[in-house]
Design brief:
Alpha-D-Glucose-1,6-Bisphosphate, Chain A, domain 4; 3 helices
Length: about 120
């Protein structure tokens, strides 16, 4: 039985600025291809331990967009507080059963010679 969801503290850029978890990966692909993968809900389940990703806002996506991701039977509701089409998306957890008061993730796609770099930062 899944644990009950609780509402998380809504946070944004200030909270993200304190993120100590940072990872980057270079791709020999155009930035547009990596950005397209970030918009593809099914693709997330192929490279992260997610079982489902559902965009719950209509396109075009932007600040205020919502999404629900599932890890097994646990759902995490997310709200995007930053969106730069083709370059950046950042969200905070709105509600989940996770034992955190707040959490953020930031994804940036940066063009580099011969491809792009995906930069991720997170804080819980």
């Amino acid at each position: 039985m899944a644990r009950a969801k609780k509402t998380h503290r809504q946070v944004g850029e200030d909270y993200l600025a304190g993120a100590k978890q940072r990872v980057s990966h270079r791709f020999d692909l155009p930035a547009s291809a990596v950005w397209a993968a970030l918009l593809d809900g099914k693709a997330w389940t192929e490279w992260l331990p997610l079982t489902r990703v559902v965009w719950t806002s209509p396109q075009p996506f932007g600040v205020g967009t919502t999404r629900t991701v599932s890890i097994g039977e646990m759902d995490i509701d997310e709200v995007f507080f930053a969106w730069e089409e083709g370059r950046r998306m950042a969200f905070c957890f709105a509600a989940s059963a996770l034992p955190v008061s707040a959490a953020v993730e930031d994804y940036r796609v940066v063009e580099v010679p011969g491809g792009c770099e995906l930069q991720w930062a997170g804080r819980a």
